[in-house]
Every structure is written in C-alpha cells, then in structure tokens.
Write a structure and sequence with these properties.
Structural class: alpha/beta
Distance between the termini: 32 Å
Order of helices and strands: EEEHEEHEHEEEEEHHEH
CATH architecture: Alpha-Beta Complex
Strand content: 25-35%
Largest sheet: 8 strands, mixed
Number of strands: 12
CATH class: Alpha Beta
Number of helices: 6
Helix content: 25-40%
CATH superfamily: Spore Coat Polysaccharide Biosynthesis Protein SpsA, Chain A
Shape: globular
Radius of gyration: 18 Å
Mean pLDDT: 94
Length: 223
Amino acid sequence: MSDLAVIIPAAGSSSRFGGADKLVAPLQGDQPVIALTLRTFLKHASVGLVVLATRESVPWSDPRVAVCKGGASRAETVRNALAIVPREFEWVAVHDAARPLVSQRLIDDVLAAAQRYGAAIPAVPVVPSIKQADGPLPAKVQRTVPRRTLWAVQTPQVMRRAALEAAYAACGLPLEQVTDEAQLLELAGQDVWLVPGEERNLKITTPDDLRLARALLAEDGRR
C-alpha cells in the first residue's frame, strides 16, 4: 500500500562542499547524488509520493515526484513541501537529499517503528569522546559528556503527517533554530523513538564524503 509520502529537502547551500552543489555531483557513473536518493525511495513499495523541495526546478519524469520551492532554513523547506502532500497520505518521511546510500531495509525498519510508536528516526552510537567547552578553540575543557546516552541521528525520519503539521503550528522557536523534524515533535510534547541506523547511511557534506560514497558503491559492484 502506497501510503507514505517522502519529503526530500534539497535547498541547502552546500557551503562545506567547496561552493559547488553536492547534489548534482556525479556519484555512480554519470548519475548525480540526488538521482540515487530519489530512485531509492521510488523503488520502495510503500512510497506513493516524493516531494523534492529545492532552490531550482529539477526535471523528473516519474509522476510520483513533485517539486516545490525550498525555504531559508531546513524547517521552512520541509514545511513548504508538507503543504503540498495530499491528505490521503497518513505517513510522512523526511530524508536528507545528501544521504543516497540509505537502504530499503532501513526504510522498512523506521517505517515499521513509526507505525508502532507514532514517530521514529534512525540513530547510531556516538563513538568519539565528547568534551564540553566554550568555543572558539583553544578553550578549557569543562567536562566530559557520557556517551552511553548520546546518539547521532540520521534520516529518514518518519511520523504521521497530521502530527508534523500540528508540531509546526505549535512551534515556539524561530524555524531557523529547528534542527530536524524530530525536534519539532519533541517541542510539541510528542514521543519520538530511536531505531538502529546504519553507518553506511552517511551524509555527503564534504568532497571526502563523496569519495567514500563512491568507494562503497564501487565495492557493491564488485560483489
């Protein structure tokens, strides 16, 4: 049943990528990052709509892909996309455009957890030691933060469309201060559950990330 709409915010500036748009960088052959991200979700049986929120018009032949204009922040961009999701879709997933290696299994796992608990996001353990200090560096360490309760979150983040709409309506923070959709739900007093993410589900932020993603895909091709 295709009752899941996927929002892909793609209106960022790619500032840490050296000025070029990382989403159109070739990732596999001549296929750009954004194409692999879109195709991954269009292959999933539960996906009936993908909304690409971007700064520029992106041609895409699949009728399940809609395009809308992005906003000044991630939260504003997602809100713009949410506004065009038809009411027939009970569930919404928000996925970073720059995470093209997300697996079908992870999409399944997060969707299943969301349908059980109401909202779910993938996460991986924080591995490095975390120090708290007032920046900029050099700065004196104030304390070491225990890692056992810290998780680095990924996407897709899945929740009921109505819950996300209500969270936007109730949000008391400026949207530029909202880091992700889970935070919106948290601010509205809604529960969000973590499920195991995948180390492979990396976000392409720098040219080194792009090279790593290419290497992982090349390794897949040799298997």
